[in-house]
Amino acid sequence: MNTDPLADKWRAFGMEVSECQGNDMASVVSVIEGLKQEGKPNVIIANTTKGAGISFIQGRPEWHHRVPKGEEIALALEELKDE
């Protein structure tokens, strides 16, 4: 079943819809702080990139099910320090 455009589907059910970049905490916080209190439910669509911020994981489908091991964990943590 095609769910695009997702925001329009939620709006059709009477929801207040906000979207943000889910890998950017400032974007997420901004959306949460800006939620409207109109007496109807809010939906947040957080668009994300799997593995964002880790060069050897981001954009690589095999990491959908793979678990980092040994040195990969250390490399990933090092790359995430600056995020």
TrEMBL record:
Keywords: Thiamine pyrophosphate. Residues 2-76 form the Transketolase N-terminal domain. Its cofactor is thiamine diphosphate. It comes from the Bacteria. InterPro entries: THDP-binding, Transketolase_N. Belongs to the transketolase family. PANTHER family: TRANSKETOLASE N-TERMINAL SECTION-RELATED. This is Transketolase. The lineage of its organism: Bacteria, Pseudomonadati, Pseudomonadota, Gammaproteobacteria, Enterobacterales.
